[in-house]
Each structure stands twice: as structure tokens, then as C-alpha cells.
Design goal:
The chain is α/β, with parallel strands linked by helices. The chain has a domain of 270 residues: TIM Barrel. The protein is 33% helix and 23% strand. It has twelve helices and 18 strands. The longest helix is centred in the first third of the chain and has 36 residues. The termini are far apart. This is GH18 domain-containing protein. Keywords: Membrane, Transmembrane, Transmembrane helix. One of its GO terms (molecular function) is chitin binding.
């Protein structure tokens, strides 16, 4: 018997396709030898070309958001499918599992951080699309009460829990964090870090919170420490890092817990920034609201003296020598004034005007601009400051400063060109339903730098 005949179901099919060699026709193999040799030669010669082409594709992916999006559509590498077939008598069931656990935004491929604040005080729901465009999500806020971390109420706690569950279901790589403090909840910081006993209470409460809620780290949002607080603040951060290291060992956790700080655009707030940077993963620069008590652009890249992003980032990066340690915070809301004088004229460096009798500034979420009948065709771009604005001649006159796609692309380019670590958004739930602004920030445009932690400023 021919060995192939032992399989009564497969052999006839094979024979019909002439795939089983006939022992009485050995000359058939001779006809296959030459094509096989040609095929092997083609494969050997094409390997270097294929490798070079793959390298070019990866470079193009980092350089061009259009190429990156095309590749994601054609090659959904972030998703894995597994099909299991079950046979039960005459029924067959296919079980298909799809996982988004390893999905990362385009900018993450070159190591950039895309950090989104998610606010308890906003009313929009978190979406899977948003999560796919982030590397870190940070809930606003928890705060210390008598040295113990707590929420502002039951609704805040529930919203945080819902956010955490949604993230864990959607991704295994997205970092979940809690921001502690904030503009209205930093009152206890100074007293809590002032002595060893209260610091230990505070640190242990944070470590317990992180463990119990199964999150990846904390964002310390102290607005703003005084000079007399700085030494105690540094000891607190150092002790928090030690507590997190011990917790990591206890839990057999592979990754370190994340600590980030928010610091002011006022470069005189922290003089020991180098020491702080030794114990934190990254530092968010609160670089918007630059107009203070005047009328002007919210976050100008250039112009207006020392209050622009370029001057602020130059100071911090030259001081620490670590550009990749920093994130620029951008806002997803606009600010406007009524009865104001136009501050942006003829690319003059004088980009701020006294408010005088003007009313404002009033905040408007990006997602509410159309609802409030703002005509988006009125948005103009100021070339010196690289910011977007609206000017309504009135009466009454209205000046609005805002981030849009164009101004955010300028900030993307700035972050990439200066090897800065990433961008933090205040807040992702102020974006529209299409996630217009978040898409820009998370794009591969952030990957046009050289990836090295090299200083691109001329430091004094």
C-alpha cells in the first residue's frame, strides 16, 4: 500500500491536485529543480531590499502622521486576534478574542509622553479613542485631609474608579495616575512636609492609596510652594520615591511607580530643580495663562519677553540639562475678553495689553465654541507668537486666545526640535467629540526630533 493511502480523506484530494509524486515518474522532480533554484536566488537577493524598505517605512512612520495613520489602517499591529474552534457533535462555535492591550499613540513610538488630565469637574465620558491616544492619564483631583489622601466627594471617587476600570480594560500599557493638590487644594502641603512625622503620614497615605487602587503613580500639583518650603518639599519627594521603591519590591512589580510634578512658569519658584529631577519621572511646566492680569495670548511660543514658552523652557532645561524630563502643558479651552484692545499687532513684541475696563477673561471649552456661536472661520494665526486667536471688532470688541490644530502643530514641532519629553493636556474632556485637538498632540509629528537627550538651546 502506498503510505499516502492510509489517509482516505486527504489522499484523493492530493492526487486530484497532482501533488503526490508518482514513483514511476521520477523525472517530474527534474522539472521542479530549476524553478526552485531561481526562487531561492530571488529570496536571497531581495532580503536586503526588503530590510531597507522596512527601515524606510519606520522612518516615514515617525516623520509623517499621514504615513503613520495609513500603516495603522493597513497593518493593525496593535490588535491581536486569536480564533479557537470548538466542535460539539454537529455544532461548531468560533470564539474570537481581540485585544488592544499593546496599543500606543504614534508619538509613543519615539518615547514621547502624551499625558492627559481627566477632570472630575467635567461632564463628558471617557472614550476608548481617547485612551488609545495617551501614554498617561491623570485624574483631577485627590487632596490631603489631615495627612490622608481623599476625594472631594462620592461622585469624584466613583468617577475615578470608573476611569481606572475603563483604562485597565482598554490597555495594559497606559499609565493611570492621580493628581494630588491643585489650585484650591494645596493649603495643607506646607504643614504636611514641614516635619518628619507629618511627612511620613503623608507619604504612607499616598503609597497606600496607590496600592489599594492599583494605579501607576501620582502627580504632585502644589500651587505654589514658597522658598521656605523648598527643602521640606524636596525631602518629601525623596521619601515618596523611597516608599514607592519599597512598594514595588513588596508587590514584585516590574515597572517603577511614576512621580510627576507640576511647576510654575515662574522660574524663581524652585531653585533646587536638579535635585528634584533625580527623584521624579517627569515635570509638567504650567506654561499657559501667561497673560496674568492683562489681555494677550494664552501660551505664546515666542514674544512678550520672559513670559513665553521658549524662554521658560530654555531656563528649566539649561538649569537641569535634561530636556526629556519636561512636558509642556497646553490648554483645551479658550479665554476671551469683552471691550479689550487688540494685543497682537504687526508682529510687535508687545503682545500683552492692560485689561483696563475690559471684562474677562472668560473661559470656553473647545467643545463648546460652536455651541456658543463662535464662528471658527474668524480664527487667525499670529506668526511671531505662533498662537491662534479671534478678534471681533464689535461693538463690543472681543479678543479670544485659544489652541487650535495649527497652534498645537507649532508646539509639537517645538517639542520635537528641542528634544522635550512630551505634552500634557488640560484637560482631554474639554476637547470635542471627534478629539480634534488630542489627535494633533498624539500624532507622529512629535517624533521628528533626534530622540537624544541633547540640549538644543544656547545656554548662558
Amino acid at each position: 500500500m502506498n503510505p499516502a493511502d492510509s489517509n482516505s480523506t486527504s489522499v484523493p484530494l492530493l492526487r486530484n491536485q497532482n501533488l503526490i509524486p508518482n514513483r514511476r515518474q521520477p523525472t517530474q522532480w527534474k522539472h521542479l529543480a530549476k524553478p526552485c533554484l531561481i526562487l531561492i536566488a530571488i529570496l536571497v537577493l531581495s532580503a536586503p531590499v526588503a530590510y531597507s524598505l522596512s527601515e524606510l517605512i519606520m522612518v516615514a512612520r515617525h516623520k509623517s502622521p499621514a504615513v503613520s495613520n495609513l500603516i495603522e489602517l493597513l497593518i493593525p499591529s496593535s490588535k491581536t486576534s486569536r480564533t479557537t474552534t470548538k466542535t460539539n457533535d454537529s455544532t461548531m462555535t468560533k470564539l474570537v478574542q481581540k485585544s488592544d492591550e499593546n496599543f500606543s499613540p504614534p508619538a509613543a513610538f519615539c518615547g514621547k509622553r502624551i499625558v492627559g488630565y481627566f477632570a472630575e469637574f467635567e461632564n463628558t465620558a471617557l472614550t476608548r479613542k481617547q485612551l488609545r491616544m495617551l501614554t498617561h492619564i491623570v485624574f483631577l483631583f485627590a487632596f490631603p485631609k489631615n495627612g490622608t489622601i481623599t476625594f472631594g466627594g462620592e461622585s469624584s471617587s466613583q468617577k475615578f474608579e470608573e476611569m481606572r476600570r475603563n483604562v485597565r480594560k482598554a490597555s495594559s500599557t497606559l499609565k493611570v495616575m492621580i493628581s494630588i493638590g491643585g489650585q484650591y487644594n494645596s493649603g495643607e502641603f506646607s504643614g504636611l512636609v514641614s516635619n518628619e512625622t507629618s511627612r511620613n503620614l503623608f507619604v504612607n497615605s499616598i503609597a497606600t492609596f496607590v496600592r489599594d487602587y492599583d494605579i501607576d503613580g501620582v502627580d504632585i500639583f502644589w500651587t505654589w510652594p514658597k522658598h521656605s518650603d523648598e527643602n521640606n518639599y524636596l525631602m518629601f519627594i525623596r521619601e515618596l520615591r523611597y516608599a514607592f521603591t519599597e512598594l514595588q519590591k513588596k508587590l514584585n512589580r516590574k515597572e517603577t511607580f511614576v512621580i510627576s510634578l507640576v511647576i510654575s512658569r515662574n522660574v524663581n519658584h524652585l531653585s533646587k530643580l536638579v535635585e528634584f529631577s533625580n527623584f521624579v519621572d517627569f515635570i509638567n511646566i504650567y506654561s499657559f495663562n501667561s497673560y496674568l492680569y492683562q489681555v494677550g495670548p494664552d501660551s505664546p511660543l515666542y514674544g512678550g519677553g520672559s513670559r513665553n514658552v521658549d524662554e521658560i523652557m530654555k531656563y528649566y532645561i539649561c538649569k537641569t540639562g535634561q530636556p526629556s524630563k519636561f512636558n509642556i502643558i497646553v490648554s483645551f479651552h479658550a479665554t476671551y475678553w469683552e471691550g479689550a484692545e487688540l494685543p497682537l499687532r504687526d508682529d510687535s513684541d508687545d503682545i500683552f495689553k492692560d485689561q483696563n475696563s475690559a471684562k474677562g477673561g472668560f473661559a470656553v471649552r473647545w467643545r463648546e465654541l460652536l455651541q456658543q456661536k463662535w464662528d471658527m472661520s474668524n480664527i487667525k494665526f499670529h506668526n511671531l507668537t505662533k498662537t491662534s486667536y479671534m478678534w471681533i471688532p464689535g461693538p463690543p470688541t472681543r479678543f479670544m486666545t485659544l489652541e487650535d490644530e495649527k497652534s498645537l502643530r507649532e508646539k509639537n514641532r517645538y517639542v520635537a526640535d528641542h528634544n522635550i519629553g512630551g505634552i500634557t493636556m488640560w484637560t482631554i474632556d474639554q476637547d470635542d467629540g471627534d478629539h480634534t485637538l488630542l489627535k494633533v498632540v498624539s500624532s507622529a509629528e512629535l517624533c521628528t526630533g533626534d530622540r537624544r537627550n541633547e540640549i538644543k538651546y544656547k545656554c548662558d
